[in-house]
Predict the structure.
Amino acid sequence: MQTQTLGRSGLKVSRLCLGTMTFGDADENSFMHGVTCDEQTAHEIMSRALDAGVDFWDTADIYGQDGLSERVLGTWFELTGKRDRVILATKCRFTMPYGRGASRRHIMRACEESLRRLKTDWIDLYQIHMQDIDTPEEETLRALDDLVHQGKVRYIGASNYTAYRLVDSLWISRSQGLARYVSLQMQYSLVERQLELEHVPLALQHGLGIIPWSPLAGGFLTGKYRPGAPPPADGRLAKWKDRLERFDTPRHHAILAAVDQICEQTGASPAAVSLAWLLHKPGVTSVIFGARSVAQLEDNLAAAELSLTADQVRLLDEASATELPYPYNFIARVDGRW
């Protein structure tokens, strides 16, 4: 498994990142109910992933309920003693029993709770799960800076930030000598490419490593979903039918056709092709993938070894292209690019 430096930092992470949102039997009160795996299976997935060189793992305090995913990871660390072999990333921001938001009060409490659940003394990458428009960015950054100086957090990252807020954050860090974000975790896939308008150029200019989440569009790009055919009963989109209905468009059908064409050329699975496309995109450091079984893990691991040709990348680019909004379309008509 190849590694790459995360943004403008000294941290090297595996090109694939193990997403752990599905780890643990989520009860009926969780939005993940019915689409997770049990703790034993999760531990098998973690062990196999690490053996395959996937040493970058991502979780969050809200995954499952009451920090379920973090607790599953913590149990594995305790059982195996391999905490120091993993680059561990987690997040805070959304509602927990003790609060919500990116205020200093919530960040400091959330970090302590995550450390307790994960059974560790440090978090390698601590991320704000979404910008908090009710909290000044300076307050958020000062709290994170304190955690870095305390040794509880090694690096900090942003997730689900608007471009304007991210630029403001980077300026505050630079002008006030605070820890700066080194990464940007955002939704990015053949289906969702809006990130390329502002965030990708921003990340390239300011040295942020992009970490795509939902690279398979909730399972749509795995090949299990076909136009006019019912979704598999055990698939995530069978539960989230409103999202599946939004995928029933000519553009989405064209994306699947292009992926299938490359699968025929390479012998790779739709999931591997879709993940590999992201690994070929500028600014992308590591792609988060989920797995509910060891078999799914093995399928996704193949993406790290799949080298797409320039023509194959172009085919996927063209099939997944979206209409440019203003002012990008205006600029493109005048200059031929944006």
Summary: The beta strands are 3-5, 12-14, 16-19, 56-58, 87-92, 123-128, 153-159, 181-187, 209-213, 287-290. Residues 250-266 form the longest helix (17 residues). The mean pLDDT is 94. The two ends are 35 Å apart (CA to CA).
